[in-house]
């Protein structure tokens, strides 16, 4: 385990006021869904699952630190494909793989199992971008990581709901 | 010319595992002389299940469950005589089992230096050597003699990343390995010594894969090899014997098959009739056969059929039965194993 924090002074962004969901975006109303861009609906819904994940090092959410933004999720519902792009707070962030794992686990637990999830760091935001992306999407490495009790504890801590 | 229409028919769905099934392996001799076919399956539920076909009903039933590993069981390999089963686990150990009249007898563990995931095991044709590989980037060769006698003969550390699979050549004493480092390495045995050197690395420069290579399989004669990758392609390679009685090599790229899967292709397997099966994370199984035109030299494989949604989720493994023509087993993240029959057009 790293003794000092990777990023001792993260920038904390002002929380964006969340617009309450109006009737026209409610998914129960099938006819309303037809008239709205499917992608937007799915993206916002899926974003809801991951925006509150806590950063592994600080008591802030990934959204607070702008690791995840509203553009973070792309959904292709027909192909059951979801891509999440996140921005680590620093270029050499070794927590990138933990964050990636948290995202994957949260989506695994929240989405129907038909979805193929692709997780990557935003281009240009990490020194070893290709290596991190490859690791985040290797099923065997992810599976083995999730059998490591220390890593699982870390992930569960990040995914635990916080009460404000 | 009339279009041939092949069909991959689902014969049975085997349920029982409680987590993803990483791989399946057919016993190489069961299915001959009136003995029913036997299949072993490995799962993230930490168990190995043994399935045997009931001669009266033709259905496969689970006849055994082995639970000795503390983490996912990733893959397994039967010895050529069908008596021994080697099992690779994420717990860093390989367990060796002896098939008896009444069941399976645990012999011992093969342990590495650390508890790092073992990802693949493969017995050679003679049964004298067992190769293992895994996350520690190494390939190990063991000699397993009996219940009490086993030793490591070589530790090969040339790959730069996790070694995903090891596979012996069907007839020659050559070991092949493929890796997260995007390469395939060839390790022939040095004359009669217990020494293996990497004589070839099939990388991008040799028209190899551009991402992790997950699987290797040989055709029946051993002069062709097929590999599959995270780069979404399947590659066919070929070699000739160096001289009369010499080993196969060097290996040359013959053909790249792409555009058939849109997620990582975890497994490929070549049937004794020459049909290549592939299984991928797009939930599909594809079958390829050689073009019979005879107009082109080298290799000319084409898609025979694509079974979309072969499993509810990722397909992790495909394996042709060694004895029954056109019988295919597959396993997936949906926790099931499926038995398929390739039906030729009438």
Automatic annotation (TrEMBL), chain A:
Q: Which domain of life is it from?
A: Eukaryota
Q: Which residues form the MIP18 family-like domain?
A: 50-115
In the record, biological process GO terms are:
chromosome segregation; protein maturation
Task: Give the residue range of the signal peptide.
Answer: none
Q: Does this entry carry the keyword Hydrolase?
A: no
Offer one Pfam family short name for this entry. FeS_assembly_P
The alphabetized UniProt keywords are: Chromosome partition
The record's annotation in InterPro entries points to:
FSCA_dom_sf (IPR034904), MIP18 (IPR039796), MIP18-like (IPR002744)
Instruction: Tell me the protein family, please.
Output: Belongs to the MIP18 family.
Q: What is this protein called?
A: MIP18 family-like domain-containing protein
Automatic annotation (TrEMBL), chain B:
Q: Its GO biological process terms?
A: iron-sulfur cluster assembly
Q: GO CC terms for this protein?
A: cytosolic [4Fe-4S] assembly targeting complex
Q: Which SUPFAM superfamilies match?
A: WD40 repeat-like
Q: Note whether Repeat occurs among the keywords.
A: yes
Renumbered ranges of WD repeats: 14-52, 66-98, 118-152, 156-187, 206-237, 308-346
Q: InterPro entries attached here?
A: CIAO1/Cia1, WD40/YVTN_repeat-like_dom_sf, WD40_PAC1, WD40_repeat_dom_sf, WD40_rpt
Which UniProt keyword terms apply here? Answer: Repeat, WD repeat
Q: Which residues form a coiled coil?
A: none
Q: Which PROSITE patterns match?
A: WD_REPEATS_2, WD_REPEATS_REGION
Could you tell me the superkingdom of the organism this chain comes from? Eukaryota
One matching Pfam family? WD40
Q: Which HAMAP family does the record associate with it?
A: ciao1 (MF_03037)
Function noted in UniProt:
Essential component of the cytosolic iron-sulfur (Fe/S) protein assembly machinery. Required for the maturation of extramitochondrial Fe/S proteins.
Q: Which family does it belong to?
A: Belongs to the WD repeat CIA1 family.
What name has this protein been given in UniProt? Probable cytosolic iron-sulfur protein assembly protein CIAO1 homolog
Q: Which organism is it from?
A: Daucus carota subsp. sativus (Carrot)
Taxonomy of origin reads: Eukaryota, Viridiplantae, Streptophyta, Embryophyta, Tracheophyta
